[in-house]
Amino acid sequence: MIEKSMETQSIDSLQDEVRRLRRAVDELSILNDLARSIGASVNAEEIMQIIIRRSIRAVNAEQGVITMVEEEQNTMRTLIRTMVSSADAPAFHLHQALLGWMHLNKKPLIIDDAKNDSRFRGVHFDGNIISVLCVPLIVKSDLRGVLTVYNKKDQLTFTPDDQRLLAIISAQSAQVIENARLIGEEKAYIKMQQEVGLAAKIQLDLLPRGTVMPPGYDIAARTLPAQSVGGDYYDFISTDDGKLAICLGDVTGKGLPASLLMANLQATLRGQTLVSQRPAECLRRSNKLLYLSTSPEKFATLFYGIIDPVEHTLAFSNAGQDWPYHIAADATIKRLRAGGIMLGMFEEFAFEDDKVPLEPGDLLVIHSDGVTEAMDAMQEHFGEPRLQELILANRSLSAAEIIDTIISDVRKHAGTNPQSDDITIMVIKRL
């Protein structure tokens, strides 16, 4: 009997060893298959889909999720979430409490009874969640994501062997996923840079290539965007009756959104210049079109004028733009103030306009607020008094030279402080 009992124990032991070896072989096969599959792709989404499918098959789960995260002010922000399900259950969501637990502990977690687990009292998991197995995706000691599988099939619970296997899968996969994600971000960044470059070229093409100067006038303009593309805008529009419409505007924001709004404003103004003889009427119509075609938080400031080179007058209206300087030959300074509110704030607004004579030696300087609001390292603005003094001291220069002088002084004032807003200047001199 003793010999028989020992023989039975020996057979049981051998059977256990065979089962262990078979499991080890199965695990090696799973890991080898996984390594080959994820090694053939650099797409993060595709790699995560492969990992989740292999994981739910390996531990016989209903559903799996990979959540990629990054730390932000001691909290975890989700970057990517990918889910695969082998059942018809709705998509389960990784509860923030599990994410917090992983952030603190950075080790595998098994929950046999989600509704009654003492570690997560008060946490309301999705109703169909019974059991959970989570493993961290660690890269260089930092939590980069969480691999979670839900609901062991056949009403069973996840085992320590399931946890061990999933931990191996996560260790093997974490760096691969992170690399693929970073490659994807780099590609997206390169594509965005290409699009920004194209947008900058388009925006540059929208600016007037040359100024059709009326006889007896010297006119120049220049814009310096704070980013690759900007929201400042200037234009010269020749009319059929020989006049020259001028405008300088500043739309809300910077970068691509501002450049798109700027293009919208330019197209609107060019169209309205052809049908509106008075500046106030042109701004009224443009304001309504801009209001109807943009979101409520979008608006633009704009100075708009029409030079009559026969009568030598400037008819103008100002929609919230910094008041231009009109400097006479005797150095008398006048600010051009007639107009109204910014474009796009209200659907209807009655703008005012005015007209000033342009005598020989008169000078007009129109600028965006990027000039006067340029700041140095001590947060001191360049300011209107400094600009006015600079214009007076250099009014004998050509229009282009005056612009160069202003920009040079603004940059000198700012020093190493980066340009925070677009800078646009237009100068008009009657010779």
What's the topology here?
Elements: H1 2-39, H2 44-59, E1 61-72, E2 75-85, H3 96-105, E3 109-111, E4 132-139, E5 142-152, H4 160-206, E6 217-224, E7 232-238, E8 244-251, H5 255-273, H6 279-293, E9 300-308, E10 313-319, E11 325-327, E12 333-335, E13 339-340, E14 354-357, E15 363-367, H7 369-372, H8 384-393, H9 399-414, E16 423-430
Parallel strand pairs: 10-13
Antiparallel strand pairs: 1-2, 1-5, 3-4, 4-5, 6-16, 7-8, 8-9, 9-10, 10-14, 11-12, 11-15, 15-16
Helix pairs in contact: 1-2, 1-4, 2-4, 4-5, 5-6
What's this model, at a glance?
This protein is of the alpha+beta class and about 425 residues long.
Tell me what you see in this structure.
The chain is α+β, with helices and mostly antiparallel strands. The protein has two domains: 2-182, GAF domain (Beta-Lactamase); 202-430, PPM-type phosphatase domain (Phosphatase 2c, domain 1). The chain is 41% helix and 25% strand. It is built from nine helices and 16 strands. It has helices at residues 2-39, 44-59, 96-105, 160-206, 255-273, 279-293, 369-372, 384-393, 399-414; strands at 61-72, 75-85, 109-111, 132-139, 142-152, 217-224, 232-238, 244-251, 300-308, 313-319, 325-327, 333-335, 339-340, 354-357, 363-367, 423-430. Strand 4 (132-139) and strand 5 (142-152) form a beta hairpin. Helix 1 runs antiparallel to helix 2 (44-59), helix 1 runs parallel beside helix 4 and helix 2 (44-59) packs antiparallel against helix 4. It starts with a helix and ends with a strand.
